[in-house]
Specification:
alpha/beta, Alpha-Beta Plaits, Rossmann fold, 2 domains, eight-stranded mixed β-sheet, four-stranded antiparallel β-sheet, 35% helix
């Protein structure tokens, strides 16, 4: 076991996944992932972005399962931020794993969509681009400073049909009703741990996991209350701990009239997958390309 990893986290990983997979996950924590970005199709297209990268002599490759995603080779985020296409909001720096929830949700034009924990706006702007800027999106963010960052990113990316609500989504009225909901929930970040962080044991605590699970369950309950019957939502976290993921869904499957809509893995080639307790959900382990991430699609019956 790596000495920087909190003991309780390692024990959880071993209990949930066994020694072999736990070691693989810890190994994944130590990998340095390349910079990845998404083409903002509201303002640009793959051809233009590729041309600009080539002009700047930046090596890259496109992702097989998402043509708007580009993997940058041997350059830093700052190198990309220095490009004109970044300044003009034609690209958005985003991890590959975090692009998946929007693709699973499949936002369409004229749908009324709620993004429950939206800042800094990666998935909000992705939903906007994916729906050709034609979906009506309500983006919730309870923290005022983060909400300002969200507004800045939305404006920069040209996302014009988004209404920002500075509100804790748990407090939304049950009289509201949405065609789709994206709940990329606040979490412990157990899928995105950086072992070189000298303060890791101080910031990643059992208390953090407990607080996260409480908030997640309350948000999930609210999401299902305001999702239209027959409609679908996506629940995602950058955690690989079952208490932040499947355990919530198991409880809700017993309590509420919902079903899991299986995610078609044929659409997403070569994901590094962990075993899941609920068939049709997806849990990715961290490796040299992906962060640890969990995604589930839920239909309200």
């Amino acid at each position: 076991m790596n000495e920087n990893i909190p003991q309780f986290l390692y024990e959880k990983l071993v209990n949930q996944y066994g020694e072999n997979l736990a070691s693989k996950i810890v190994e994944g924590y130590s990998k340095k992932r390349p910079v990845t970005l998404r083409v903002n199709t509201i303002k640009s297209n793959c051809e233009e972005v590729i041309e600009e990268l080539q002009k700047a002599q930046i090596e890259f490759e496109q992702l097989e399962w998402y043509k708007d995603a580009i993997i940058i080779k041997e350059k830093s985020e700052q190198d990309i931020r220095n490009l004109k296409i970044y300044e003009e909001g034609k690209i958005y720096l985003q991890s590959l794993s975090s692009m998946l929830p929007v693709l699973v949700l499949d936002p369409k034009e004229d749908e009324n969509i709620l993004d429950m924990a939206a800042a800094p706006g990666g998935k909000t702007t992705q939903m906007t681009a994916y729906s050709d800027n034609k979906a009506f999106i309500t983006a919730c963010e309870k923290n005022k400073v983060r909400a300002e960052r969200l507004k800045y990113n939305l404006e920069k990316q040209g996302a014009s049909r988004v209404n920002v609500l500075v509100e804790d989504a748990r407090n939304l009225s049950n009289f509201l009703s949405y065609d789709k909901v994206l709940l990329d929930a606040p979490c412990s970040g157990s899928g995105t741990i950086e072992l070189e962080n000298s303060k890791l044991k101080q910031v990643f605590t059992e208390d953090l996991v407990e607080r996260s699970t409480k908030v997640q369950y309350e948000l999930l309950n609210k999401a299902l209350n305001i999702l239209k019957q027959g409609s679908e939502m996506v629940y995602s976290t950058c955690s690989i701990l079952k208490e932040e993921n499947e355990n919530h869904l198991k409880k809700l499957l017993e309590k509420k009239k919902i079903e899991i809509v299986p995610i078609d893995l044929k659409e997403f080639k070569d994901l590094p997958l962990l075993p899941v307790d609920i068939e049709g959900t997806v849990c990715i382990y961290p490796n040299e390309l992906y962060e640890g991430f969990f995604i589930a699609k839920i239909r309200k019956i």
